[in-house]
Predict the structure.
Amino acid sequence: MRQPCVRYGAKRLSARSRAFTLVECVLASAIVAMAVLGITNAMGAGHRQLQSGTELLKATRLAESLIEEVRGRPYDGTGTGRTLLHLDDYDGFDETAGALCDFSGNALPVEYQAFSRQSKVMPSMKTLEDLGGAVVNGKTIVVIIRDSQNQILVELSSFIAESLP
């Protein structure tokens, strides 16, 4: 019995040569599966990087907010209660995870409560090359933000010049 043929250009193809074999289908499926697996892994890694970046951004905001709080305080003196603190009162400042508050004592949003933050205040001097090498006395505040595993995420420092009389 003769198989029907289809004309394709100048060639004649049999019905059998136009179909995919089982081996070709399995091979194509394996290639597609490997491509999908690779894309899925890349998307998972990208998602983890995005989460890590988001956590780092939140930690940086926490550190910057505490530095700004300290910069707004009087240089000398002491106080009681967070709203009356002076610069030196922030030496040894420690807020544990779940208890983070702003300068007025209001709890920070939930997304920040997984972190803890500490600060140190140290006497320091800074040489200002733009002013002919003038030396300025002051204090450096260092703020450290830690994650829930107590790993340091961010450490920021800022120099605060001594007040003039």
Q: What stands out?
A: Strands lie at 5-8, 11-14, 94-95, 116-128, 134-146, 152-161. The helical segments are 22-71.
